[in-house]
Every structure is written in C-alpha cells, then in structure tokens.
Amino acid sequence: MIVLGIETSCDETAAAVVRREPDGRGTILSNVVLSQIAEHAAFGGVVPEIAARAHVAALDGIVAAAMAEADVGFGDLDAVAGTAGPGLIGGLIVGLSTAKAIAFAAGKPLVAVNHLEGHALTARLTDGLAFPYLLLLVSGGHSQILLVAGVGDYRRLGTTIDDALGEAFDKTAKLLSLAYPGGPAVERAAASGDPARFALPRPMLGRPGCDFSFSGLKTALRVEAEAAAPLSEADVADLCAGFQAAVTDVVRDRVGRAMAGFAAEFPGVDAPALVLAGGVAANRAIRTGLAEEAQKRGFRLVAPPGNLCTDNGAMIAWAGIERLSQGLADGLDAPARPRWPL
Ligand code: KG4
Ligand code: ZN
C-alpha cells in the first residue's frame, strides 16, 4: 500500500510518500518539508494569511518533489491523504483541496486526516509500536497527553487550559528579545543560566487530572523581567533557565500522573511506551526530566527522529495508511476543520 500525504495546517508545506510493507511496518519513500519560518520571523509568530499564500505558492512543487524522490506516479498510489484539521483554515483549504484534486484526477480514495492523529500514530511508523501507549504532544499549537488505544480510538487525558507549551516558549523569547522560534533560543540561553535565581510558579503541579496551564507562568516571568530591567545577558539566561526548569517540573508531574493512570488501567502491558511528539519534544531539559520519570515508572521513552516529531507529510501519509487499512476513507466533500479535537 502506497499513500501520498499532504500537510499544510500551520507553517510547514509538506508532502511525503509512504509504503506499508507486508509485515505492517512503514517505509518512507520521500518526505519533503518546506519551512516558512523565515517568512514569519519578522512578526514573532505565524501570520495565517502569509502562511496560506506561501502554501499556495509552494505546494505543487513540494508534491512533485515528493513523488519524484519516491519514484512513483499518481497511478501507483492507493490513496491520497491530506490534513483536514485542526489548524489554520487558509492552509488547510490549500492542502486538502490539492489532495482532493489529485485523488479525483487519479481516481484514488481520499483520506481526510486529523493532524493530531498523524502525530499520534507516527511511533507505529517508526518503531512499530503496538497499542495502547501514551503520547505527549507539545508543539506551538498543542499541548496534549493522549492515550492511544487503537486507530480512531484516542482518549485525551490532558490538554492546556490556556497557552500551548511551544507558544509559552515563543512568548518568553519575545519578551526577552530573543530570536524566533523561541524554543531553541530559550534553551540556548538557559544553558548558562541559574534556574534557582527567580522563583517562578509551577502551575497545576500536584493538581488532579493531567491538564496544563502556562499563562500564569508567563505573567510571573514578565513581572520578574520588568523588575530586573534593564536586563543583562546573565539576567536573560537566568530567566530562561528558571522558565525551563518550571515547565520541566510541570510536564514531568502531568505526564507522571498519566503514566500512573495508564499503569492502573493496563496492568498487563509490559514496559509501556511514552511517545514524544511536537517541536518542544526536542528540548533536552524536558526530555531528561521525562526520561527520569519514565524510568521511575517502568515506561520506555520513545522519541521518533526530530524531523518526524515536528510537522511533516509522512505522518499524514501513514495515518492515511492506517485508516485505509481499517476500510476508512472520505468523500470529496470532506470539509477543512480548523477546530477538530481527536
Ligand atoms: O511541532 P512544531 O515544529 O510546529 C508546530 O507548532 O506545529 O513546534 C514548534 C514549536 C515552537 O513553539 C518552538 O518554539 C518549539 O516548538 N520548539 C522548542 C524547541 N524547539 C522547537 N521548544 C523548546 N525547546 C526546543 N529546543
Ligand atoms: Zn503538529
């Protein structure tokens, strides 16, 4: 089974071709991603209108490149998968319409994929994971802890009640006049900082459930930054280190609770997996904290390669394969859905 996947929900224009092997594993035949970071950098965040226009300009070429690299023609495909949501409506319409056009012209089924399902199933493509497992998805748009029990069978254990974690990193960077995207810049600055100098809150720590909240932390950081202004390089490093330590504690606590709940519900699953996805999963402090917590609780940490943790077409193609294998496909009237919880 060979599927073309198209992803345009945010600021990456991406297309990929993935083949499912007879043993159920996936082979990525091509995975082409064009990041729009440069186009949005001056604005300190993704500008929806700029993103949609950039997708229009780039997508044909990205699809052609993915098909050429995979050395397949549209006639060789078993289906075309496109992200239908959640995400920025302009970009979603560009990608989904393109997927529909190719599916219609080639006479192939369309699979309208939920972007979060793409992230949720990636570990089965890369590591052949069996259900059930836990997923922590932390990106610029999402902060979720999911129980992945089967294709189409997801339970959201926790989500953010305000900002996404990547958004919190980006806003912190902006406040401290660091580069965009903020996550890598904050991590770099934190490396030489003292995490204990500023007493920052750990929102939700120890609370029931697995939800996140980051806006109070953002406000506390702003108050500290304003009190310490004008900020030296050392002040910025200390604030970044304090912020990173606070979010690491919070993520560890929330995911720890999810692992405890999972272990109680599925006592028969031996060495269950905690899968990481999303751009923030690249953060080494957070990863180290989670690795410790996982080890403590008998979980193994599964971190797909970085380029498959962030937005890409291969995860959409793979979700298409998984859905198609269950006999699931969509009509050409499938709508783009900017809000679409799993
Ligand atoms: O998954 P992603 O590439 O795109 C979407 O948001 O869909 O995630 C991007 C987010 C940005 O907010 C970025 O600041 C954050 O991930 N990020 C990081 C790191 N690298 C990227 N956050 C913390 N530490 C990092 N090393
Ligand atoms: Zn994503």
From TrEMBL:
Q: Name one GO molecular function term.
A: iron ion binding
Q: InterPro entries from the entry?
A: ATPase_NBD, Gcp-like_dom, KAE1/TsaD, TsaD
CDD domains from the entry?
A: ASKHA_NBD_TsaD_bac
Q: Where in the cell is it found?
A: Cytoplasm
The Gcp-like domain, residue ranges:
27-318
Could you tell me the EC number(s) of this protein?
Answer: 2.3.1.234
Show the catalytic activity: L-threonylcarbamoyladenylate + adenosine(37) in tRNA = N(6)-L-threonylcarbamoyladenosine(37) in tRNA + AMP + H(+)
Entry's Gene Ontology BP terms: tRNA threonylcarbamoyladenosine modification
Q: Which residues form a coiled coil?
A: none
The protein's role, per its UniProt record: Required for the formation of a threonylcarbamoyl group on adenosine at position 37 (t(6)A37) in tRNAs that read codons beginning with adenine. Is involved in the transfer of the threonylcarbamoyl moiety of threonylcarbamoyl-AMP (TC-AMP) to the N6 group of A37, together with TsaE and TsaB. TsaD likely plays a direct catalytic role in this reaction.
Protein name per the record: tRNA N6-adenosine threonylcarbamoyltransferase
What is the organism of origin for this protein? Prosthecomicrobium pneumaticum
The gene for this chain is: tsaD
